[in-house]
Amino acid sequence: MTAAPVWSVDPRTGKRCAQVTGESSTAGVDRAVRAAHTARGALADRAARVRLLRTAADTLDAARPELTAAADAETALGTARLTGELARTTAQLRAFAEVVADGSFLDIRIDHADDSRTPPWPDLRRYRVPLGVVAVYAASNFPLAFSVPGGDTASALAAGCPVVVKAHPGHPATAELCAALLRGAARRAGVAEDVIAVVHGFDAGTDLIHHPLVAAAGFTGSVRGGRALHDLAAARPVPIPFHGELGSLNPVVVTEAAAAERAEELGTGLAGSMTLGEGQFCTKPGLVLAPAGPAGDRLLTALTGAVTAHDPGVLLDGRMRTAFLDGVAERLRLPSVTAPVTPGAGPGPTTVTAGVLTLPAAPLTDGGPHDLLLEECFGPVTVVARYTSTDEITAVLDRLPGNLTATLQLSTAESRGEGDAAALLDRLTPLAGRILAGGWPTGVAVAPAQHHGGPYPATTSTGTSVGTTAVERWLRPVTYQTVPDALLPPELREDNPLGLPRRVDGRPPAVDGDPDLPATW
């Protein structure tokens, strides 16, 4: 049977540009997974993984004009944005190369035999090993950084896991180009090219999660799609870890003192954050708790002015435009909800205009139809809920689901610890994986201390998909007990032939020259 065609579509016009390939059959998915599984030995050597990651970064950078043009043709995100996204993507690959070279991610722990303990300790040696083939589900809104060459792929390869990516239908040509570049990089690094593969089509996504040789999965997308795959992963005869990023409201609390001190700055800053990328960032601030009264009015005036001045923008595809317009219309039908700036349809087939919805905070405190406003609406819109007391802030926060981020906007005095700032911070901490005091949540730094995750439905696990600790999602610990030194993996041998950082007998590695000081690792 002929495979259904996979088309590249121009979101600016809604027209098909070219047939990229055909949808992957069940047999095709099986071949890709089995080839990846067979190639996993090519990633056993840490030095080979370092070469692969660095070569991949160099290869993508060298192809920047071609890559950004392909991605822009399928997403309309613009050359400037995509150039930055590519730089982030290659920096991420190089960062994981450094993680692998350092070796701390293996979390090596050695406890020598000690009969004086109660009960006695046998000789125990623990480290982390790769899980196996990882299925990655590419995101719509980041065709590079959260897709074929993105963080899930980079961290899985760093862990020693081959990757099969289910391409997003919104940018299949970009996916194929990235896959070809990565496979070529693998060959030049002396690694089997089958450590990275791409499949296409809805059915391929379910075939992938069902495949018995797939050992874990990473997903970035909607609550509905992510939850369906999560449940399939859990229902397998052998369940597997599913690290999904699903949906996030990213609440912002503006204190009355902060609004009084800098309402205009907050209003324009919020407008810039909620319209960034046409509101298609997973960290877009979607609910803002702002004070009722004159200070909150000034903030809202500045916000609506900046949003009104924002030009119509192109969404990633027609389905997202329809979902955005339907979601806005449904919210506007709720009692007490008004629109100082009404989001709407723009002049093109996938174009929309940004907007702001507002209402008193009270209806959000007691459930009912207004709970819709506590769900993410993907696109350039935010909801400003006007509170009249700290108790009302608390009541709304208590009803929120899990989030990637939560932001607290404070006055200068509150930043010094005055007022209720500490209590509000405590209220926000259970809600999200990244807590901000000042600034805006859009933009996620690729840094060792970063955490991009949060309570459900933000993510389905406690792991992060951004930052160097993302590698931990694709590893599992193994302990060797009383195994002769000659039979141990090199990482665990007594003489430490690889020179890796290790925690021995409960103590961290020693700083050179001073065995009493712990090393930073």
Your description of this structure?
Strands 13-16-17-11-10-18-19 form a 7-stranded mixed beta sheet, with helices on both faces. Strands 7-6-5-8-9 form a 5-stranded parallel beta sheet, with helices on both faces. The longest helix is centred in the N-terminal third of the chain and has 24 residues, at 79-102. It contains 14 helices and 23 strands. It starts with a strand and ends with a strand. It is an alpha/beta fold and 521 residues long. It has helices at residues 26-39, 46-62, 64-75, 79-102, 151-159, 172-188, 202-210, 223-235, 256-275, 294-308, 318-332, 390-397, 412-415, 421-428; strands at 5-10, 15-22, 108-111, 124-130, 133-137, 163-166, 196-199, 214-220, 242-245, 251-254, 287-291, 313-314, 338-341, 344-345, 351-353, 355-360, 381-387, 403-409, 432-437, 475-481, 502-504, 510-511, 514-518. 36% of the residues lie in helices and 21% in strands. The relative contact order is 0.13. Residues 511-521 have low confidence and may be disordered. Helix 3 runs antiparallel to helix 6 (172-188). Helix 5 (151-159) links the parallel strand 5 and strand 6 (163-166).
Task: Pick out its properties.
seven-stranded mixed β-sheet; single chain; five-stranded parallel β-sheet; 23 strands; alpha/beta
> Strand order within the widest sheet?
13-16-17-11-10-18-19
Helix fraction bin: 25-40%
Biggest sheet record: 7 strands, mixed
Total of helices: 14
Rg measurement, Å: 25 Å
Q: End-to-end distance, in Å?
A: 55 Å
Shape summary: globular
The oligomerization state is single chain
